Amino acid sequence: MxxxxxxxxxxxxxxxxxxxxxxxxxxxxxxxxxxxxAHVALMEDEIVRRRGWLSRERFLDLLGAxxxxxxxxxxxxxxxxxxxxxxxxxxxxxxxxxxxPAALIVTACAWAYVRFGALPExxxxxxxxxxxVIAIVAQALWRLGRTAIRSVRLGALxxxxxxxxxxxxxxxxxxxxxxxxxxxxxxGAARAARGFVPLAGAGTVAAxxxxxxxxxxxxFFFAKVGSVLFGSxxxxxxxxxxxxxxxxxxxxxxxxLDAVAVGQVTPGPLFTxxxxxxxxxxxxxxxxxxxxxxxxxxxxxxxLSAPFLPRLRASPVAGALLDGVxxxxxxxxxxVTAHLAxxxxxxxxxLGLAAAAGAALLARPRWSSAWLVLAGGAAGVxxxx
Length: 385
What we know:
Layout: H1 3-31, H2 36-50, H3 56-66, H4 73-116, H5 123-148, H6 152-166, H7 171-194, H8 215-228, H9 233-247, H10 253-265, H11 273-305, H12 309-314, H13 316-344, H14 348-363, H15 369-384
Helix pairs in contact: 1-4, 2-4, 2-5, 3-4, 3-13, 4-11, 5-13, 5-14, 5-15, 6-7, 6-13, 7-13, 8-11, 9-10, 10-11, 14-15
């Protein structure tokens, strides 16, 4: 008699987990301004601190894993969280929920751009949002850093990674060097203890072809970009300029810069730049095709890599690699935050907004950071109005 309620409870529990994932990531996709570093901070706040869905160590491992595969890191982190929380259905629900609001907002911006020949005015809103985002990211860096930097060696590695990136060394080179150095130290210690010998290797290749415009060529172009792109939004800009302006002639330089600007100033993943471009080239169908193309590889890569993460952490050598990537990832996040802070904290008002946001986060740790972002935007509109 008691078996029937038990058999029905698991589907209901899974349905509740999927609904909670969908609601959270739909909200983040609609309010997560500031780029990948801010997205990571907002996710850590909601998933680790407020809901306790994952431990900080587990969250860091998922963040490190996103840096080992190509594609949009914050979106892949959302997909990883969904898989960790609710299995394969959670993987799809979390990723799609994070992407959908941003894609719809960017599509609306593209419609306005095509109809009126200009981008919507967001200066006042962003004036208030940016300093709040800096405060949120700084707090997340502090929390994650206390977990990731567990030794003097990892602290020195993080400082070296930040210095190298600040001096212009490529992000992927910094991550690879940090991972290899962490593995080398671990292997040296293991060999000294019991004669341990490792194997390691990595590589990535990008190629480019040209084609006549059509929805299928558009899909395949963005699917290729999503499959090979490591690094920041500036790397995305380089790929798009080469492929769409120089080789294919589908866009002008001005249109490309406007597309990248929309991806940066709207909430959610920066890769929704593809949505804007797709709309310019092929209307609503083009927006849908481009969005599907650039994000689909992220789901595939996470699905392929997620089952191996527990084994990575269980292996001393692979665990050391993940520790090195985690430390370097936070270092890169700190460098990006420093650059963003110089652009966001431009006068006493923005400094005051950042300080107020930081104080609010300390005084009310259970508050959702997303509401602080919206409050900052509203304050910016009032202050600049």
